[in-house]
Specification:
The chain is built from 3 helices and no strands. By secondary structure, it is an all-alpha fold. It has one domain. The protein is extended. The termini are far apart. The mean pLDDT is 80.
């Protein structure tokens, strides 16, 4: 079953139509959408930390702080 990760967007016809249309155009199985959310649900905190350490160099970044008026 698909989960709603974006404020009800998966429940809206337009959002589903977008993915189904692209699946049809690209001749892909639309079931990948269910697989995607299953994969996201199964990411562990340890895996997320290891990936962040691997790809983010904390010695070489720009920190930006927005201060709205």
């Amino acid at each position: 079953m698909m989960k709603d990760y974006h404020a009800g967007s998966l429940k809206r016809d337009e959002y589903l139509l977008h993915f189904l249309s692209h699946s049809w155009i690209d001749q892909e199985d639309p079931d990948w959408l269910n697989d995607y959310y299953n994969l996201v649900d199964n990411i562990s905190l340890r895996e997320l930390k290891e990936t962040a350490i691997k790809y983010f160099d904390m010695n070489n970044y720009i920190k930006v702080v927005l201060k709205p008026e």
